[in-house]
Amino acid sequence: MSPHFLDPGSVRSAAEVNEEIRALWLRAGGSLSAQERAEYELLVVEWAAAIRGEIIEAA
């Protein structure tokens, strides 16, 4: 699980989260275990929040 996601004071960019998602898929060899899938789901939620934050900040 991403330690950054669990720390509400830590805000990463969408690009940083995307890199972690890519690394997870590479480590998993394209097939996620149940634990990796849970981590992936948290990362996607974090990525979506980062994208929203970047859009709001840009406006």
Rounded mean pLDDT score: 86
Low-pLDDT segments, ≥5 res? none
The total strand number stands at 0
The SSE order reads HHH
Protein structure class: mainly alpha
Distance between the termini: 31 Å
What overall geometry do the principal axes of the alpha carbons give? elongated
Beta-strand content: under 5%
Main sheet record: none
Estimate percent helicity.
over 70%
Helical segment count: 3
Radius of gyration from the alpha-carbon trace, in angstroms: 12 Å
Give short descriptive properties of this protein.
59 residues; mainly alpha; 75% helix
How is this fold's topology laid out?
Layout lengths: L2 H4 L7 H15 L5 H25 L1
What does this structure look like?
By secondary structure, this protein is an all-alpha fold. The chain has helices spanning 3-6, 14-28, 34-58. α2 packs antiparallel against α3. The protein is elongated. The mean pLDDT is 86.
Structure summary:
The protein has 59 residues and is an all-alpha fold.
